[in-house]
Model the fold of this input.
Amino acid sequence: QVQLVESGGGLVQPGGSLRLSCTTSGIFSSIYTMGWYRQAPGKQRELAAQITSSGSTNYGDSVKGRFTISRDNAKNTVYLQMNSLKPEDTAVYYCNAVRYQGTLKGDYWGQGTQVTVSS
Done:
């Protein structure tokens, strides 16, 4: 059974920082592209950051320069360091693991963790 378990969300003041973690089980996450997506109330889910199995990263325009994604394959964990947080970063953050090999071989999601940026 594949599981992606997020942690680290919470309430933070504007300008503050949080680090999200996503630990996987049931898959060899080292061969997956891992990503963090977010969904604010009334809005579509959007990409925050993504990291490939080789370590290449990709960020959504609204988080570039403030968020950093990283992975520790030995711990089957991917992290999202979020700095200079803004109220508009408030959303549920979801961890994703996806793998293509010609066709889609796996696409898994966590349950989400709430991040609230407010004074």
User: Anything to note?
Assistant: The radius of gyration is 14 Å. The mean pLDDT is 96. The longest strand covers residues 91-101.
